[in-house]
Amino acid sequence: MLAFTQGSAAAFTELFHRYKQPIYGFFSRRLADPATAEELTQETFFALLRAASRYEPRALFRTYLYAIGFKILRAHRRKAAFRAAFLGYRNSLPDPSKADSNESALWVRRAVEKLDPLDREIVMLREFEQLSYAEIADLLHLPLNTVRSRLFRARTALRELLDPSTAAASSEAQKASPAKVSQSAVAPGARKGFRL
Amino acid sequence: MSSSTHPVAPGEVMALLDGELRVDRSLFVSAHIADCSECDKTTDSVRNVSTSLAKWTVPNMPVSIEDKVLRSLSHIKNLRTNEFLSGLRRLLSLQAVLVSGAGLVILWVFFGLNSGRHYRVASKIAAERDLPVDNAAPMASSPTSRATLSERGRNPITGRDNADSQYYVHKIPFQAQPGYAQLETQQPPMIARTVLLSIVVKDFDAARASLDAILARHNGYAASLNVSTLQGSARTLQASLRIPAPQLAAALSESKALGRLENETQNGEEVTQQHADLLARLKNSRETEGRLQDVLRTRTGKVKDVLEVEQELARVRGEIEQIEAEQKTLEHRVEFATIDLKLAEEYKAQLNTPAPSVLMQLRNAAVNGFRSAFESLLALVLFLAESGPSLLLWLALLGIPGWRVWKRYRRAQSMRSPAAAYGRLLDSGRGQPSIPQSRRPKLPGFGITILLVRMPPGQPCNFARFPELLPKNVGAAASSCGIL
Predict the structure, then answer these.
(1) To the nearest whole angstrom, how far is the Cα of A152 from the nearest Cα of chain B?
(2) Tell me: the pLDDT tens digits for B439-464?
(3) Domain map of chain B by residue range?
(4) Cβ proximity of B251 and B218 under 8 Å
C-alpha cells in the first residue's frame, strides 16, 4: 500500500488481486443481492484509490480495507432503510436457493442469520475473513475479551443451529428456560457501542 | 464447565484452535485437552462449526468489476497528477509571494538604512579624494556643499582652476578616514545621472565639431541630435548625449567650455533598490522555471497537463526575458549618464537681406487676397452645407409659428390704436380722406389730435361710431363744436 501511495500502479494491482475475492465474499455473505455486492466491492476499491494519498500505516492493511468495507456496508444499509421507510422501496431479495447453489450453504446461511448481529459479525469476520481477535476488536471497536466471549457464544449457538440433534436438545432446553440465541434475536443491534 | 471447577475455560480452548493464545498458555491448554474429554468435545465442536461454515462459499468475483477497477486506476492517477499540479501552483505562488516579500523587506531594510549613511560617507570621501563630487553626491554642487570644501585644486581634465567649476577639491589621503572600509565593503549605490545644459556659442560650426570630438574622446554617443537652421534666426542644436558615468565630469567640463553657459541642471536618481528588486524577481523566476522543467521531466500525465505546464513555462520564460531587459536598461542608465544639451548660436542680424520688389509685393498681396476671398467663400459654403439643413429645419419649426404669433400680436395692437380707428372711419365710405391712403397720418394715442375730415353734403360725421378714435376730452371738444 505504501508503494501504491508513492505512485506504483503495479502495487495496487497486486493488492487488488490479493483482496478482491475476500472483499467480494465479505459483501456477498452480508447482502442478499449479488449485484449489490459487486457494486459495493467496486466502490470499496474506488474508495481505497481515492484515499490512498491519506493512508497512514497505523494498522494492518487488511484491517484498513475491511474498515472501508464496513463503512460502505453501513452506508448502504442506512440508505436501504431510508428508502424502505420513506419511499416504500424494498430490497428485492433474490431466492436464497438460487443464490446459494448447494443446500449446505443455504443451511449455514440461515443459521448465521439467526445470530445476534454483533455475534454474527464477529464469527463471520473470524471464520470467513480470517481476522485475528485483535483485528476484530479494532474493527468493531470492542474490547478483546468481549470479542473472544462473543465469538465463543456465537460458535456455540451455531453448533446448536447446525447440528439437528443438538438443536432438538436445545429446543427441549428452551421449553425449560429461554434460550440465549432467541434472546439475542429478539433485540438485534441493541448492544451498546456497535451498529451494523 | 466453569473456571472454578475446570482449569481451562472453553474460550481458551477456542482461542487455542484459533491460534490466539500465548505460547506458554498454549502448551498448558494443549496438555489439558489431551487429558480432558470435555475440553476435547469443545474442540470438536468448534472444529465442526468451522467446517460447517466453510461450506458457505461464494462464487468468484466477476471479471467486469476487475476491469472497471483497474481502468479507474489510470483515472485516479490523473486526478492525483492534477492535485499535484494544483498543489504545485499554490506552492509556487505562495512561495513566490513569500520570497518576494521577504526579499523586498530585507533589501529595504539593508539599502534603506544604509543608503543615507552610504550617501553621506561617499560624499565625504569623494570630497576628500580627488573625485568628482557629482559621482558620489548629486547635491555636492549646492552652496552648502561648496562651503565645506576646504581647498580647491585644478581640474585635471580642463586644466582650469576649480574655483570656476566648483566640482573638484584637493586630494587628501583617504585611507586614514573613518568609514572608508565600510564604504568599500558595501555595494556602491547605482545612480542614474542626468544633466541638462544650455550653452550659447559664438561659432556654431566650431562648437559642433568640438562636440563630436568630446563624444569620441569620452566614448560617448548621441542618442538623438537635432540641428535647426531657420531663416532669419539663430541656429540651434538639441542633443541627448550618453557619456560613460566615470567620464561624465570631464565631458561636462569640456562641454561647458564650448561657450557661455546659460543654464545647468543636474539630477541623480538612485536606482539601487529597483535593481535589487529586479534581481530578486529574476532569481525567483529562474527558480520557478527550473521547477517547472523538473515537473516536465519527472512527471507524466495527460497531454492537457503537459501543455499547461509548458504554457506556464513559456510565461515564466517571457517574464525572465522582460526582467533581464529591464535590468539591462537600468544598468545602462547607470553606466551611461545623459547630457541633454541645448546649443544655441548667438544671433546676428543679416544686413544684406534682399528686399522684395513692389510688383512682387503687389502680386503676393493679390494672390493672398484672392486666396483669402476664395477661402472665406468656401468656408461660407461649407458652413451652409454643413449647418444649412439644421438651420432650415429649426427655422421652419420655430420661426414660422413665431412669425405668425408676432403678426397676430401686431394686428391686435393695430386694431386697438387710434390710427386703426381712423382708417376704419375713412374706409367706411362716409367720409373722404383728406390725404391719400398711403399718406395717412400716424395718430398717436395721446395728446391733441386734429382731424380734418371732409364729409359729403348732408352726411354727418358720426364719430360716435368710433369711440376708440376719440379720447374723452377730444370727444367732449368735438361735441362742443357741433360736429357730432
Answers:
(1) 6
(2) 554 554 445 555 566 666 666 656 55
(3) 10-51, 417-481
(4) yes
